[in-house]
Specification:
Blueprint lengths: L1 H12 L10 H4 L7 E2 H4 L7 H4 L6 E2 L1 H10 L29
Antiparallel strand pairs: 1-2
């Protein structure tokens, strides 16, 4: 029984163990001190155009850090909780007993 519970617990914990965002230096692969649109494409959920505050086609360290702060976490699907679960349908009343 234990061997079947452990994998299930690990799968349930995966969203909580998400990889941290890449650092500026990791994304700036050419080392020029700026992140191009091509380099920024490696960052999941990064809206490059919105992050590029001065619209110069590159991200500075400050623009990148601000963009990371505004990244929304991925949407998670979860089973319905008791508060948002559908109401159960009541069973039909029994037929009256005829004498």
């Amino acid at each position: 029984m234990r061997t079947s519970i452990l994998p299930a617990l690990l799968l349930a914990a995966l969203p909580a163990i998400a990889a941290p965002a890449l650092t500026f230096e990791e994304v700036d692969t050419d080392g020029d001190g700026l992140i191009s649109a091509d380099e920024g494409a490696s960052v999941e959920r990064l809206d490059f155009n919105a992050a590029d505050g001065d619209n110069d086609g590159t991200l500075t360290v400050d623009e990148y850090e601000i963009a990371l702060e505004t990244l929304a976490p991925p949407a998670e699907t979860s089973p319905p909780s008791p508060s948002n679960a559908p109401e159960p349908v009541p069973a039909a009343p029994p037929d009256p007993v005829k004498p």
